Amino acid sequence: MTLFNTFRTALVCSVLASLLTSASAQDAAYEYAPNQFTDKIDLARGSISPIGDGGFYLTDNDACQLVVAEWGWEKSLCGAVDKIIIVPSPAIDTLLIEMPNSDGYITYDDWNHKDRRKEVDAIWQSLEDSVAAQGDTLGIKIQMDGWLVEPTLNTDKNYLYYATRMTWDGNPQVNIKAATFDRKGYVNFLIIPTDPDVAASDIVALIDQNLTAYESNMGIAYADFIEGDKVASYGVLGVLAGLVGVKYSKVLAAGLGAILLGFAKKLWFLIFAPLVILWNRVFGKKGE
């Protein structure tokens, strides 16, 4: 291990431990123990290989502690996390991979629906409401500032993605979210880049870098679909709603509301703060 990696490991452990100063007193004795991300990690329905020079990933217990104490999630949602990876590459601050969705093979038929714009606008409004509620839970102001990259479907590589600009407690940040489709449903990736001023043109490359590092288990890829497999009762717009964790009652599209009820119960509060913001708070630095 190089001196730099030794220092970085110590720094990550120190920062994660220091975050407890903002958690409740009952968590005061908790100690984080991140693992180095130098080899392929097995996930629930696939695996991910190192993206850059490494980084660190959290144990299940550490990940639950972080999302509850610092991101304002309800503890019942810890099971939605497959893996949290810290600084997997210089361009990525935080990568969260959710447990896979297993509602069935996603078809693309609804993506060219004439009401897609209306449905996407309704999903955005619900996202704003959920973010405001999360801010209330944490006692800070979180504000959505708009799409940086509009929701986009890549039919060649079978993934959906978007990026948003937001302000988290006075700190500008970018959230990138992508869903890669497989034979059984899809897997969500939540990405926060290191640079809050990342250009929209660079976001597609970041998404491709992460999703290329992910590999579905044998026989589970989207192309492995066979006649008779379970097919989801919703399409890409339903996946988009689940990706942002919207509340079903806010969606205006006919027929989509009933689908989103399940999403709202499972995926509420999936916005999260980059660790660099938490590090800055711990060490008394201000966001630029």
Strand order of the largest sheet: 1-4-5-6-11-10-9-8
Distance between the termini: 32 Å
Strand content: 25-35%
Number of strands: 13
Helix content: 25-40%
Class by alpha and beta content: alpha+beta
Query: What is the averaged pLDDT score?
Result: 77
Main beta sheet: 8 strands, antiparallel
Number of domains: 1
Shape: globular
SSE string, helix = H, strand = E?
HEEEEHEEEHEEEEHEEHHH
Q: What is the multimeric organization of the chains shown?
A: single chain
Low-confidence blocks of residues: 1-7, 18-26, 247-270, 276-288
Keywords: Membrane, Signal, Transmembrane, Transmembrane helix
Transmembrane segments: 251-279
Organism: Hyphococcus lacteus
Signal peptide: 1-25
Task: Write up this protein.
- The longest helix is centred in the middle third of the chain and has 23 residues, at 116-138.
- This protein has one domain.
- The strands form 3 sheets. An 8-stranded antiparallel sheet has the order 1-4-5-6-11-10-9-8, sandwiched between helices. A 3-stranded antiparallel sheet has the order 2-3-12. Strands 7-13 form a two-stranded parallel sheet.
- A hairpin with a 4-residue loop joins strand 8 (142-154) and strand 9.
- Helix content is 32%, strand content 27%.
- With 288 residues, it is an alpha+beta fold.
- The protein has 7 helices and 13 strands.
Question: Topology of this structure?
Answer:
Blueprint (H helix, E strand, L loop, with lengths): L2 H16 L16 E2 L4 E2 L3 E3 L7 E2 L2 H10 L11 E9 L2 E7 L6 E3 L8 H23 L3 E13 L4 E10 L2 E11 L4 E8 L6 H14 E3 L14 E5 H9 L12 H11 L7 H8 L6
Parallel strand pairs: 7-13
Antiparallel strand pairs: 1-4, 2-3, 3-12, 4-5, 5-6, 6-11, 8-9, 9-10, 10-11
